[in-house]
Predict the structure.
Amino acid sequence: MMQQIIKTFPDDKPLTSISVIEDISKRPAGFIIVSKTHDQDSDADLWKGSTFFGGRVSRYLCLSKTEGIDNYIVEDIAIIGEKDMPPDGYGLIPKTMDTDAKAWKKRQICYKLTRRNLALSAVTDIILLSKSKKAPEGFSLAGDINGLVVCFKTIHDLGLGPHNNNPPPVLGYSLNPKGIPQPTILPTPSPNGLYPSVASPTNSGDYVNLLRPKRPAPTPPVHSSPGPLATNLITTSPPEIPPKPQVPSSASYATLKVHEGLEGIPFVLHPTLELIASKGASIGPIPVIKRKTMEDLDREYAYDFRLERQST
């Protein structure tokens, strides 16, 4: 009995899921029902209404610190209108968990889920007030739903942030603003290995010294008069290689020859025109083509297909 009482006490573990149920007697596994108000210990029904036939309609808030999406916690909650869009990153609770009915009337709760190792804060408890309009000590005011004031408790020192679970990478140079420790020992291969051994640095300035060369640069060669052997090497030139013939840009690389339709047809004048052209005589005036209207064409080329119709 004492263990059950201790389990009902509030703790600082973050909430992982928020739901709404209709039947208070059907508590979902892993959830706690907010059935009473914090200040008056009265009924914490969020609907407070009845059906057309006189039946009672109720909605109760359910909280869980074990259920929900793995590695996600509730970072913040807000109260918005029933038809309002939630803020960016916030989710809604449109249906009841037990009966799949409409969850809210006029106003609703939306909440923000964040990865546990990325959350900057966490909601650990939500209470409802029936008379008081001021949040108790340690709680923040979210808003009201059908006469009940919603308050929530938030912690900021989670011990779950990225600075604890996922430390930043260690910098390999002297720029170290947050005092992250430098690497202690660099890998030292064996003397018979492929690479020479490198001593581990003792302070941040040694990282710069490792990049400096260990020996001076070689002196540049001095220009001198060429000897007899060098003269022979200079005067003797290799035989010239003839340049390669340039491939014409219009070269065809097709495997099948393509015919254009006019290949093989000589372009010559008619023999009559050649004879007239050879004698220097004129061809004569070019006849003028008379323009004909549609009526002229119909009258000249009209045909009624009478014979064809009789044969059928």
User: Anything to note?
Assistant: Residues 161-165, 168-176 have pLDDT under 50 and may be disordered. The chain has seven helices and eleven strands.
